[in-house]
Amino acid sequence: MTYRPEPPHRHGDVDRVGVLLVNLGTPSEPTPSALRRYLAEFLSDPRVVEIPRILWLPILYGIVLSARPAKSAAKYATIWTPEGSPLAVWSDRQAVGLSQALRARGHQVQVRVAMRYGEPSVARGLDALRAEGATRVLVLPLYPQYASATTGSVSDAVMKWSAGARRLPEFRFVNEYHDDPGYIGALAERVRAHWHAHGRGERLLLSFHGVPHRTLVLGDPYHCQCHKTARLLRERLGLEPEHVVVTFQSRFGNAKWLEPYTEPTLRRLAAEGLRRVDVMCPGFVSDCLETLEEINEEAREAFLSCGGERFEYIECLNDQPAWIDALAAVAERHMAGWNTRAQTDLAQASATRERATALGATI
């Protein structure tokens, strides 16, 4: 096997630390061809669709990739911005904010963004960090709750890249932070700010991304972690249990997924006489298709069409300062023990080399 070339090694160089901030991904543009490439990569991941390959791949490349790309492209077109995909825009801003926050805390680390599907890929992000001399890498997925289909898949991509590396960086992985006080505090601050500007609804509905129900039976902690996030947020806001509703969105296929489902729940609440609902998606830290189109457009229409009068969407954490600070705290905690004061170390290493040269040492 041929391994990838490595940056030139110099004796005395200090360890450098990199942070790979990973989000789910996005097509490069809202067109059927771009969506076909994106969906082919996404839906062929065995972590995402746990159906035997011999059965699933003919369906994917036959039926799904014939009909779905055009429909998905039309949905993406409704949320696309002059800067590009909202998820990519917010991920880039989060990376910049994280780099600045870590620098303010005294850490000299390189932060790179990667997408599990699409570009920049996990492999491209790791290549960039290695080219910059990173020998230690913290992989930080933008998924607060752990799921095999999300966080687990990021680990797969890192391991695939590692199989072709001659010199492996020292890796650390952040698996989840669903109950992190900073993350919960940032969510609460976002809700309070929205209520301050727009008033408060009769219910706060927290919609998380759905996964097949069988993953819960097989040991995936996602369902429990979503409910814990919701409980901690409710307690931080000082709300009674009956004022908060937890649902799951984005079903795919005919199998049973985690319940209750978001859209049917909104229809039921409206039919029961609920006039106003506030909706937030705590599992998404970046606004994207699932929040801006599926929730703020489709779910809104479902609620209003069944008699609801007012639907308030509370935006994701995005680049909110409290969230960036919480993200920096998570990164800092997981980098504990790594020397991230690179500038000091570089000066010390340079002095060591100069002393060795002066003594005529040969390394």
- Stretches with pLDDT under 50, minimum 5 residues: 343-347, 349-354, 356-363
Question: How do the strands line up in the largest sheet?
Answer: 2-1-3-4
Q: Considering DSSP H and I runs of 4 or more, what fraction of the residues is helical?
A: 40-55%
* Rg over alpha carbons: 23 Å
Average pLDDT: 93
Estimate the strand proportion: 5-15%
Topology, number of strands? 8
Distance between the termini: 30 Å
Q: In one word, what is the shape?
A: globular
The biggest beta sheet, please? 4 strands, parallel
Structural class assignment: alpha/beta
Molecular structure report:
Its main location: cytoplasm. One of its GO terms (molecular function) is lyase activity. It comes from Rubrivivax benzoatilyticus. This is Ferrochelatase. The protein has 363 residues and is of the alpha/beta class. The chain has 13 helices and 8 strands. Strands 2-1-3-4 form a 4-stranded parallel beta sheet, with helices on both faces. Strands 6-5-7-8 form a 4-stranded parallel beta sheet, with helices on both faces. Helix 5 (148-162) links the parallel strand 3 (134-141) and strand 4 (170-173). Helix 3 (86-104) packs across helix 12.
Comma- or semicolon-separated keywords:
363 residues, alpha/beta, four-stranded parallel sheet, 13 helices, 8 strands, 49% helix, 15% strand, disordered C terminus
